[in-house]
Amino acid sequence: MFSVSRNQFGPDFTFGAATAAYQIEGGQTDGRGPAIWDSFAATPGNTDKGDSGVMACDHYNRWPEDLDLMRDAGFDAYRFSFAWPRLIPAGTGTVNDKGVDFYDRLIDGMLERGLKPYATLYHWDLPSPLQDKGGWMNRDIAGWFADYAVLVQQKFGDRLDAMATINEPWCVAFLSHFIGAHAPGYRDIRATARAMHHVLLAHGTAVNALRAEGAKNLGIVLNLQKSEPATDSPADKAATHLFDGIFNRWYLDGVLKGEYPADIVKRLGDHLPDGFADDMAVVGTPIDWLGINYYTRSLIADDPATPAFPAKPVEGPLEKTDIGWEIYPQGLTDLLVRVSDDYKKLPIFVTENGMAEVEGIDDPRRVNYYEAHLKAVLEAQRQGADVRGYFAWSLLDNFEWAEGYAKRFGLVHVDYETQKRSPKASYRAFQGLLHNS
Ligand code: FCB
């Protein structure tokens, strides 16, 4: 049991759990088109054991059971993502009716169980034919994405409580085009700079297109990382500011102020697309809510060996999760308060938070992790942040991207041989919280 109760969070606070299409759905043979994660995973060395989302949790077929688990836990809302290649297999053009039928059933299934649908439009499964045209490096992606967003609004918008455009644009741009750890796996600064701008241009273009269709309650989901210097040296402090700029300020300033931080613009220089400044009103299109995903902090040291971005995360001393991330609940409070104090006040949702833990249904460290982070949310509210909801990552153990199936984040254990679901102690802890107050 958690030592917090739900009424402490306020009367209208929303509790939910989150997933993403590529990580759980499987069901790739029913008219769904190829995605960049299929080819990335098929390239040796990119994912643990070459794992991919081909089968994942077979949620495409087992969704009623998964929604029952959501309902039985007592969650108010389910954060899920639409798979763009399932709805529009080539990314643009022809719609896959079986994909539309699947999300019709899924959303109706949520409503039948009293779960509010919180949808994400893009959680990383870009249709491969769009990658062939340059993907996030190509400015045209703003229009491709907006057309897809409008399709979602026309088919499902009347039944959605909230819609987020992009999940974690830092991962879409920097992790995938500079570090190369995620699809499409590039390591190129020009590709990165273009993706950093186009991902936010696509976000703003889609928000405007959705509003024109009558959509309400639109947001974006940013992954923010508390960045702290590894030492007190001026070089490490400067590196920390740079890291914060690339990770946090680029997206916060872009979306919430309609401007990019000058130090990062200067560093990216000519790699940014010509005329990007003319797009800033679209990038900064007002949104209705902000989602923040939080897992850990980064300790940052100067890295002269990487002149383009001389800032590197170094290992910290705190207790770590099974994926090696330090457990640092204070960072969640700090980020929520910072965003609330430094930017226009908006309703904020913690759209992901959770930890990887070794396999098993007895997961006391995860119960402690959740409890500490729920308290961190309460502390942020006490300090004035308008936090309206909290989503645990994740409902199920699932395909953890480059880590394959080796890292488990679920409240519910999945046996990938049999697809049997078994609730963990952390699931029961949420059930206790949500049923007892
Ligand atoms: C986030 C992703 C999510 C999951 C968690 C652990 O960055 O949004 O899909 O992989 O990390």
Describe the structure.
Helix 3 runs parallel beside helix 5. This protein is 41% helix and 16% strand. It is built from 15 helices and 13 strands. The chain has one domain: Glycosidases (TIM Barrel). With 437 residues, it is of the alpha/beta class. The mean pLDDT is 98. The chain binds beta-D-fucopyranose. Beta-D-fucopyranose binds at residues 20, 23, 167-168, 171, 223, 293, 352, 393, 400-401, 409.
SSE order and pairing:
Layout: E1 14-18, H1 21-24, H2 36-42, H3 59-73, E2 77-81, H4 84-87, H5 97-112, E3 116-122, H6 128-132, H7 141-156, E4 162-167, H8 169-177, H9 189-212, E5 218-223, E6 226-229, H10 234-257, H11 262-268, H12 280-283, E7 289-293, E8 297-302, E9 311-314, H13 329-342, E10 348-352, H14 364-382, E11 387-393, E12 412-415, E13 420-423, H15 425-435
Parallel strand pairs: 1-2, 1-11, 2-3, 3-4, 4-5, 5-7, 6-8, 7-10, 10-11
Antiparallel strand pairs: 8-9, 12-13
Helix pairs in contact: 3-5, 7-9, 8-9, 13-14
The structure holds beta-D-fucopyranose (FCB).
Beta-D-fucopyranose is lined by residues 20, 23, 167-168, 171, 223, 293, 352, 393, 400-401, 409.
